[in-house]
Structures are given as structure tokens and as C-alpha cells.
Amino acid sequence: MRILLVKTSSLGDVIHNLPVVSDLRRVFPAVRIAWCVEERFADIPRLHPAVAQVIPVAWRRWRKALQRLDTWRQMRDFRRAIGAVEYDLVLDTQGLLKSALIARQAHGRRCGYAAEAAREPLAARFYDATFVIPRNAHAVLRNRWLAAAACDYPVDLPLDYGICAPTDELPWLHGERPVVLFTATSRDDKLWDEANWCNLGQELLARGLTPVLPAGSASERRRAERIAAVLAGALVAPPLTLPQIAGLLGRARLVIGVDTGLAHLAAAMNVPVIAIYVASEPALTGVHGRGFARNLGRPGQPPAVAEVVAHADQALLASQ
Predict the structure, then answer these.
(1) Cα atoms found within 13 Å of the Cα of residue 172, Cβ hemisphere only
(2) Looking at the chain, which terminus has fewer C-beta neighbours within 10 angstroms, N or C?
(3) CATH at 202
């Protein structure tokens, strides 16, 4: 049996789709699963041992360079790659017109959300079969319920993201009790005030913990360095790939982050995680896992430092 999953972006959405792989492997032990995903997130499906093939798509990059001949060659190669196999099922759990059009490039029975359940109703026109999945459920549940409906198996399987931390060495990391702080996110209105991070870091240091601040872009790195400058003993991580970040999370005692896909990665790895919400609603897309996972705050009502510290103490006590 061959199944193609189409979930292209964003990072958090891709992570939320990992339990679908575990469910399919549990129900169909011999299944061969391929996954079409945006190239920048391709390392996430590769963390799951049941994903046999990752088919990267570069739509975000291609649409900015449609005037280049090489872009059209890459798009042609992608169509050949995704159309090279006859699948028993092509499952689009994204529910966007973009993802539906990608699914149409593959051969097999194409399934997705019904118009009233899809994020973009027009996407439903491109599937062979559609299913009504409640919109008020968490994204992880929606993905899993759609797969269960398309394959006709029970929806009460235990939650399993199916990934574990890579074991690569991180020679720059010192201290036996790292706490990873994700201070950056895709939108400035989702940021938690730097003074809050500094106060939180002082509380963590007082507990014998080592704050570790990963950073990607130049602006994120400057922010991390400003925070670390007032926290004697804190570490600003060097530039890391997604697998290296996963390796860092596997060594962490606790993860605290704003609304970013990397906080979801911690939840997927069963690392204790606290997510801080400032401008977005966590009910449907907050961190969701089998371990300690807390969503604090809501639009216009970010959590206070004391609240985050109290939950951090609970997480540390539970992990002893």
C-alpha cells in the first residue's frame, strides 16, 4: 500500500501532521508513506522513521522567480517526481487551494476536507472524496480524523508523533540542565517583551538551570544576544539546522517559547514545553502532546513572568 501525504507548510502545521504517519503505520504496518512538503521544512518528515520518501516542493521560492527558466525546469522535475508513482491514497491535510493543486499532480484517489471544513473551500473541488471534519478541533486532531475517515479506521488511536532526538554532538553546549528559550517568532506582534525574558532567565539561573537561546535571522540573533547579555551563564546558540535544533531539544530539561513552530517540535518530542501567546489564540493550534505542554496567554493578554515561572516549576518537578 502506498500513501502520499500533502502538508507543505508552515513548520507548526507540518509537525502537527506527524501523528498521521504514526496512525497509518499502526493500522497498515506494510504501508509505504511519501510526504510532499516545502523544501525548508523537509527535515521534519525525515525525522519520522515511517516516512519512506520526502518530495520537496519549492513553491515559496518558485513564485518569486517565475521569470527564470530554471524555475520552470524545477517545476517540471517536481511534477515528474510526484507523478512517478501510483498511490492508493493521496491525502491533503492542508486544505488550501495550493495544496489541492499539488495533490492533483499525483496519481491516486485524492482525499481532503469538504468545502465547509477546508481552510480554503475552493480546494474541495479538486479532490475525489471529501470529508466533513469539525473546524473547532485542534489541528492535530483534524489531521488525524481526516486520515481516519479517508482510510476507514478508528479515530481513538493513542497520540504518537513518532520522532526522537538526533544524537549528534553539540560541542558548544555546556551545562547539564539546559532550558531552551525560543524568543523569536514570525511576527513582531507575537513577541514577548525582552524585559520579561530577562526576568524569566534570572529565575531559571537561580534554579541552577542554563538558559539557551537559539536564533535564526540577524535580528533574532541581536535580540537573543541582548537578553543573554544580562544573564550571566546564558548561551546564545550558534546557527542550527532543524535536525540540530531537534538534537538540542532532546537534551533540554524544559522549553519555553513564543508562538513558533519550534515549540511544537518540543511537544512532539515529549519535552516539557510552555508556549507563550501574545497575539494569537492557542485553542486550535497551541502546543499539543502527551507530555507536559502548557499554553499561556491569549490575544492582548500575555502571561506575566510569575505565571510562566510557576508552570516552569511544575514542569521541572514533574520531570524529576
Answers:
(1) 14
(2) C
(3) 3.40.50.2000
Phi and psi angles of residue 177, each rounded to the nearest 5 degrees, phi first: -130, 65
Q: Are 145 and 208 in contact (CB under 8 A)?
A: no
Q: What is the pLDDT of residues 6-58, one digit of tens each?
A: 999 999 999 999 999 999 999 999 999 999 999 999 999 999 999 999 999 99
Do residue 38 and residue 110 come from a single domain? yes
Angle between helices 305-318 and 194-206 (to 10 degrees): 40
CA 150 to chain CA centroid, Å, is 23
Same domain, residue pair 90 and 11? yes
Closest CA to 290 of 84, 148, 140: 140
**How many domains does one find in the chain?**
2
**Rounded Cα distance, 59 and 61, in Å:** 5
- Residues 6 and 138 occupy one common structural domain: yes
pLDDT in tens, 63-109: 898 899 999 999 999 999 999 999 999 999 999 999 999 999 999 99
The model carries a pTM of 0.95
Q: Are 62 and 69 in contact (CB under 8 A)?
A: no
